[in-house]
Design the sequence.
């Protein structure tokens, strides 16, 4: 009974938090609309939400096609980056020598400006979707490597010793202790990775593309179509929130015992 009451209390608290977030979002839009009129800001420089909303129906921009191009590249690159990052995290956790050899390259790749990496990728691989996906992979795998390796390493040593004393080998210890312990760390890294995937997709489209939301933003700069650029910003924000929310939802489903997710 007490456990059920506690669950109801958490659900109500979560619902209240979502309501406040949605209300804050609506208030922000209303404030944006009012300030543009009150301060008499030129609408071609800073369009209000009502004008941005109209661009989806009054222009000849194929919003759905461009959105799907960006979303597809972000999802594919993120999936590959997460898989590669998880595998690399497992390998460097199991081998201290491999960790000392690989980690300097991983960190060096992370600190390099991605805008500088993109032209090099295009020179090496050409202006293809493969180049764009690789750039997204570079942006997404690092948080997975760091977080998962931390989760695999920071286990209760007493529990590991107990399983070893009962005859469990390294493989069983990995599946029974290390892997479950790394799940919260994995989802923390995945939240960062899905955000980085959209950033990588936009950067790739900035450098070379004739489609996608990044292309629309860059083309809007040349044509002084600020409203279209804001329209792309809104869609990117919605995509980012949806991907982030999907990760949170999946984490709660897979780890109901972990309340931080």
Sequence:
């Amino acid at each position: 009974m007490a456990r059920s009451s506690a669950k109801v209390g958490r659900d109500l608290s979560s619902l209240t938090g979502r309501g406040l977030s949605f209300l804050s979002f609506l208030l922000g839009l209303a404030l944006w609309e009012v300030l543009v009129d009150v301060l008499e800001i030129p609408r071609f420089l800073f369009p209000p939400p009502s004008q941005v909303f109209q661009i989806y129906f009054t222009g000849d921009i194929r919003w759905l096609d461009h959105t799907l191009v960006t979303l597809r590249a972000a999802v594919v690159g993120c999936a590959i980056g997460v898989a590669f990052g998880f595998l690399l995290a497992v390998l460097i956790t199991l081998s201290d020598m491999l960790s000392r050899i690989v980690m300097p390259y991983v960190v060096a790749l992370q600190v390099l400006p991605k805008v500088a990496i993109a032209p090099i990728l295009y020179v090496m691989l050409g202006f293809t979707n493969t180049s764009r996906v690789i750039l997204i992979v570079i942006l997404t795998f690092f948080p997975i490597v760091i977080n998962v390796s931390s989760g695999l390493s920071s286990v209760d040593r007493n529990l590991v010793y107990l399983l070893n004393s009962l005859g469990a080998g390294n493989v069983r210890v990995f599946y029974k202790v290390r892997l479950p312990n790394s799940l919260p760390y994995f989802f923390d890294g995945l939240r960062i990775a899905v955000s980085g995937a959209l950033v990588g997709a936009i950067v790739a489209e900035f450098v070379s593309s004739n489609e996608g939301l990044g292309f629309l933003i860059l083309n809007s700069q040349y044509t002084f179509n600020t409203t279209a650029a804001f329209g792309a910003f809104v869609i990117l924000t919605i995509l980012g929130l949806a991907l982030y929310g999907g990760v949170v939802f999946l984490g709660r489903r897979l780890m109901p015992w972990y309340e931080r997710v």
Observations:
- DSSP finds ten helices and no strands in the chain.
- The mean pLDDT is 81.
